[in-house]
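Inverse folding, one chain.
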């Protein structure tokens, strides 16, 4: 989701800073917040608000309430996302979402942009699985929601962070790294790098 399908940088940073202000703390620059995105909301909060990391449940309550009200204010689809999903769907590809983003936000944003129909219920969000990326478990769970699909070397994970690419590696599938996102690659490896979502179509054409 974040950094791959949607540009949610402003909303995430604003909500973290709202939480900090609510606790009497100074705001952080956007980049200092975004560097912690990708491993779930509670990880983000514990690392972006280390002063209160011992009370992450309280941080989560403040964050969730504010984010639920404001998560659709500035969020945008990345260019060519809808076109790419439409084309892949028409080619018969099975599509799913595997994200660390909280389930309530994932569902609301997919519905807001009219994207839920492309995934047909194959959505595994933060809190839906016992483990999160880079574990392959949520990816396999997502695949099972695609009519019991079993992952193979023909499948792809598309994402903008090291957790996505490591998840792909752990699951034995290919990884498409979205250089247009705001995640960090670190030293993770990928199969291809794309600068716009539609570039994926060219690489996957041979797989049709």
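Residues assigned per position:
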């Amino acid at each position: 989701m974040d950094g791959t399908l949607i540009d949610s940088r402003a909303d995430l940073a604003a909500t973290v800073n709202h939480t900090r202000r609510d606790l009497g703390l100074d705001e952080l620059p956007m980049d200092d917040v975004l560097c912690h995105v990708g491993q779930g909301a509670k990880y983000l909060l514990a690392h972006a608000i280390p002063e209160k990391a011992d009370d992450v449940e309280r941080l989560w309550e403040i964050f969730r309430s504010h984010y639920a009200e404001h998560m659709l204010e500035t969020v945008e689809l990345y260019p060519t996302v809808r076109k790419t999903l439409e084309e892949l769907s028409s080619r018969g590809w099975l599509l799913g979402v595997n994200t660390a983003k909280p389930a309530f936000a994932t569902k609301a944003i997919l519905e807001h942009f009219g994207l839920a129909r492309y995934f047909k219920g194959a959505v595994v969000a933060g809190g839906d699985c016992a483990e999160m990326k880079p574990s392959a478990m949520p990816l396999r769970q997502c695949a099972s929601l695609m009519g019991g699909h079993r992952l193979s070397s023909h499948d792809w994970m598309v994402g903008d962070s090291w957790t996505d690419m490591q998840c792909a590696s752990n699951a034995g599938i290919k990884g498409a790294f979205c250089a247009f996102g705001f995640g960090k690659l670190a030293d993770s490896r990928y199969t291809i790098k794309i600068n716009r979502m539609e570039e994926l179509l060219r690489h996957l054409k041979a797989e049709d």
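The mean pLDDT is 95. The two ends are 24 Å apart (CA to CA).
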